[in-house]
Amino acid sequence: ACKAGCHLVGPLPSSKERGDHLGDFLLPEGKFVVLSFGSVLDPYDFPEITDSIVRATNALGLKLVIGSRKFSKEHQLPEHVQVLPYLPIPRLIPSAEAYIHHGGANSFSEALRLGARQILIPLTTDQPIQAHYLKQIDAGLTLPPQEVNHNAIEQALKVLGNPEHPIHNNIARLR
Questions:
Q1: Which end of the chain is more exposed for a tag (fewer CB within 10 A), N or C?
Q2: How far apart are CA 85 and CA 80, in angstroms?
Q3: Residues with Cβ < 8 Å from 38, sequence gap 6 or more?
């Protein structure tokens, strides 16, 4: 039992086993970016942010893989965009040019553990805390939701795509 003033600390869950049903999943060919807002939020519900990411990835010639249960076949998405209801994050992140996420505790810690080149866009609750820590350790980029536009995403992707940028040393060290 926890009495007032104590803190509970323990490991966060890993999504390692959650993709077992996607045994035949193939990584996208070429360079790609992953967009996921976890299991509670959905990129569909943040159209300004998602549209900016779609535009920026298209401008840079990158494919975009979106985790969403709300987009349907009726949505006219550009050819460079692939939508899946579930993303096998541990399989995608190591090969992705960038992992754009909301900064949930599990997404954040998994991104650090896997060595993701991450762009964190804190959307709600505890997510600004993870954004704060990501800035402190300089192992990824953060963008406040109100500052997200295709130019900001494009610039962030260029930083992460530059292997000479010092941020890559911190990502490797923390991995």
A1: N
A2: 17
A3: 101, 102, 104, 106, 107
